[in-house]
Amino acid sequence: MALIAFAAVPMMHAQAAPFSSSAVAPAAGDARPMQMSSVHLPALLPPAFIEHAPPSLDKANYKKDHWKNDDGTDKYVVEFGGGIAQPAGASKKLENLGWNVHLGAGSNFNHWVSLFVEYDLNNFGVPLHEVQTYFGSGYMPGTTGRVHLWSFTVDPMVRYYHSDQAEAYIIGGGGFYRKVVRFSLPSCTVSCGDHSSNNAGGLSIGTGITWKVSYLADARYFAEARYEWVDNQPYANTPASREPANQRTGYFPVTLGIRW
User: Fold this and answer.
1) 117 and 41, same structural domain?
2) Fewest Cβ atoms closer than 10 Å to its Cβ: which of 56, 77, 171, 223?
3) 40 φ, ψ to 5°?
4) CA 128 vs CA 26, 89, 139, 140, 254: distances in Å
C-alpha cells in the first residue's frame, strides 16, 4: 500500500501543475511554509462558469462606437414607469392617495453620473370635506374633485453603487409644475363643474435601485422613491380660500419602471 501511495504522488503533482504558475520553496533550515507566488484562477474555475462569465471590458472596443461611452455605458437612455403618489404635510388635508406616470430621457456621462429630462403626471382625489368646504351651501351630494399635477424637470443622477447587475443612486432636480383642480357635478352628462389652476416651480430629491436580469441585457428595471415640493401660491387677485390649486404641494411618488 505504501508503494502505491508513493507512486501516486508524482501523478498528483503533474495534474496540479496547471493550477499554479509558480511556488517559492523555503531555503534549507527555514521553518516558514512554502508560499504561492501567483495562482492561475481560470484553471481553478469550472468550465461552465468561465463560459458564462461576463466578458472583460476592453475600452478600445468603444472608442469608435457613437452609442457607447469609453467605459462601455450607453450614452443615451430612455425610461418609463408608474406607481403611487402619497400626499405629504399639509397636502394630506387637500389630496388623497393617487397614482403617477413617469417618462424620461437622458444621457449617461459614465458609470456614475447621468442627466435626465423627465415628464411626470400625478393624479390625486380631493377629500369629501374639501369638496363640501369649496362649494359651501351650494354643495350637491355626489360632487367629486380631482387634482392633476404634471411637470417637466431636469434631474441629475449620481450612482453611489454600481455593478454589472445592480445599481443604487440619488436623483433630484427641479423644473416647471402645473396643478389643476377639477370638480365634477353629479347631474352633468358631460364634464362640468368648476376648476382652478396654478403654475409654479418645484424641486425633488430621491433615491432608487436598478436591476438587470442578465449582464447581456441592455434594460434595467428600477424602483424609486422621491419627495417633491411645489411652490404653489395664490394669485394677487384671487382669495386663497377659494382656490385649492393655490396651496403649496408636497408628495411622495413611488415608481416602478424600466430604463434602457
Assistant:
1) no
2) 56
3) -85, 95
4) 85, 18, 11, 11, 25
Render pLDDT for 172-183 as a digit per residue (tens, 0 to 9). 999 999 999 988
Best CA proximity match to 68, nearest among 56, 55, 59 = 59
How many domains are contained in the chain? 2
Task: Taking the CA atoms of 45, 50, 54 and 59 in sequence, report the sign of the dihedral they define.
Answer: positive
At 145-176, the pLDDT tens digits run 999 999 999 999 999 999 988 999 999 999 99
Q: Name, in order, each residue with C-beta under 8 angstroms of 104's C-beta and a sequence gap of 6 or more.
A: 78, 79, 80, 116, 117, 118, 119, 155
**Cβ neighbours of 182 (radius 10 Å):** 19
Measured between alpha carbons, how far is 251 from 175 in angstroms, rounded to an integer?
A: 16
